[in-house]
Amino acid sequence: MAEGEGPRPPRLDGTVAVVTGASRGVGRGIALALGAAGATVYVTGRSSRTGDRTEGLPGTVEDVAEEITARGGTGIPVRCDHTRDADNEALAGLVRERHGRLDLLVNNAWAGYERSAEVRFDAPFWQQPMWRYDLCAASLRAQYDVTRLLVPLMLPQRAGLVIGIGFTDGDTYLGQAAYDVFKHGSDRLNRAFAADLRKHGVTALALHPGFVRTERVEAAWEALSAGPAAVLHSVEYVGRAVAHLAADPAVAERAGTVLTTGDLAEEYGFDDVDGRRPPAFRLEGRMTLATRMDRLNRVAAAATAAATGTSAGSAGSAGSAGTS
User: Fold this and answer.
1) Which end of the chain has fewer beta carbons closer than 10 Å to its terminal beta carbon, N or C?
2) pLDDT > 90: what percent of the chain?
């Protein structure tokens, strides 16, 4: 067995999955891991070769779909803005027409980090523009709408799994009012989904990544201290957690729970792509998650600006910078 490979991933041949916000970051890692397990994956996102890319970041739905197919799965790219009801309805119609069912939905899309270079991400609420609240609110609404439209494709077979990607740390304040409210709201939403779906054979739960090495974190890599670097993991580490959950015949016992990637790695016995097994991410010390992310966003923006010759203020945000 090759170094870093760990136990062989579960097989998900025949599984039909939708991963939202999968053109880059955590969504891309989840989609690729599912593809490597043999699944058919609808890759959704706003970034496409035929249109704009979100804040000019690398990666498109077509890129990821091709990677999935190269790994042995079947990738289907879908250009989709999940804040638009019509796009979500079109996605549901496409899955219904092409496959007639859905086995796995991963709600990963999150726009709450966008425009982070414009106003400090950890500024107090009275200094925050309403557009930041609206970005977080729209992201949670999108999860609700996507799930509302796609779950009916699971109900006839009385089987299916809905996973919401998020992050909270108990009662710890995440450091920005809107971010904190809607991240906790995401966990509660998945708990509500689980309660409504329990009698229909469909499971819903929340999954928290750790500190993730996304594209923008790469841009700020040299500025990271040894502490963050020690717990950093790849986007595919999260994907391996999703693949094991999807293959677990007892996953219904986890309905309504909040799980962490590091804890699942210990339980299922899988490693990251480099052979390490980073633990579950926990907030420590006085620095909030929002402040950590604000600093990372600004370093990443400066690095991007230096590479492109633009000003740091126009270099965009960190996308999924660190955690979802």
Assistant:
1) N
2) 68
What is the pLDDT, as a whole number, of residue 7? 62
DSSP classification of residue 117: T
DSSP H helices in the chain = 25-36, 61-70, 85-98, 130-150, 177-197, 215-219, 226-231, 235-247, 261-268, 289-308
Residue owning tokens 């790695």: 265
Q: Which residue has the tokens 């500025």?
A: 223
Residues 166-187: tens digit of each pLDDT: 999 989 999 999 999 999 999 9
Catalytic annotation, pick one of 113, 133, 179, 237: 179
Give tens-digit pLDDT for 194-203: 999 999 999 9
Q: From the CB of residue 192, how many other CB atoms can be counted at a distance below 10 Å? A: 13
From the number of C-beta atoms within 10 Å of its C-beta (0-12, 13-18, 19+), residue 147 rates as: buried
Two tokens, residue 175: 């450091």
